[in-house]
């Protein structure tokens, strides 16, 4: 990705996955370092912005797009994905159905959105709620899905305990910035 200017580069990154997997919590944790227990449904589409220092000459305005999560097969996702530079796809380690539906989300993304050069939008699979003991998904299942659906990688995270959140963002931004 060639820098637009010496200063800010705007990146659009969409966050997707089923309802209650932790999308809003992930964004709030990364952008504000806050975490709230208790579920508050996201209505419509929301945005958060975080400025990150990329190098001495370049900073990035990372725009994180949040969505309720019920929209997977609705036409709204096409508009939501439009112009995306990258994607985080979350599922809940304590709910195996959300992993199965992660495959459907990835298919929806790849069918509706491409980078300008036609390649798939780089998408990082995030297995959230690693703090919970009632795990329903094995590492093998995650790895298999990651390979089969051509994710750029997968990470286990706990938004609650702030494990692997910033690292995951850094990993995806590195991949986005490495693309020309
Ligand atoms: P969204 O519908 O995908 O936006 O999910 P939310 O971010 O609203 O989170 C749904 C519920 O999961 C909330 O009650 C959160 O407090 C909880 N949650 C989010 N992340 C974690 C986590 O890492 N661990 C645990 N135990 N709960 C989490
Ligand atoms: Mg939400």
Automatic annotation (TrEMBL):
It is found in: Membrane. Keywords: GTP-binding, Lipoprotein, Membrane, Nucleotide-binding, Prenylation. Signal peptide: none annotated. GO terms for biological process: endosome to lysosome transport; phagosome-lysosome fusion. GO terms for molecular function: GTP binding; GTPase activity. It comes from the Eukaryota. It is a lipid-anchor. Its main location: membrane. One of its GO terms (cellular component) is membrane. The keyword Cell membrane does not apply. The small GTPases Rab are key regulators in vesicle trafficking. Belongs to the small GTPase superfamily. Rab family. This is Ras-related protein Rab.
């Amino acid at each position: 990705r060639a820098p637009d200017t010496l200063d800010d580069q705007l990146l659009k990154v969409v966050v997707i996955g089923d309802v209650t997997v932790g999308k809003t919590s992930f964004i709030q944790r990364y952008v504000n370092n806050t975490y709230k227990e208790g579920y508050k449904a996201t209505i419509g589409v929301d945005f958060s912005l975080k400025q990150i220092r990329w190098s001495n000459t370049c900073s990035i305005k990372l725009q994180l797009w949040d969505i309720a999560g019920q929209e997977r097969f609705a036409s709204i996702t096409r508009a939501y994905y439009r112009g995306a530079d990258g994607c985080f796809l979350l599922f809940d380690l304590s709910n195996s159905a959300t992993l199965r539906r992660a495959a459907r989300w990835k298919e929806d993304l790849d069918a509706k959105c491409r980078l300008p050069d036609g390649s798939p939008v780089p998408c990082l699979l995030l297995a959230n709620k690693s703090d919970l003991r009632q795990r329903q998904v094995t590492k093998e299942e995650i790895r298999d899905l990651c390979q089969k659906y051509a994710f750029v990688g997968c990470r286990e995270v706990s938004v609650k305990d702030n494990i692997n959140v910033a690292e995951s963002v850094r990993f995806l931004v590195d991949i986005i910035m490495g693309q020309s």
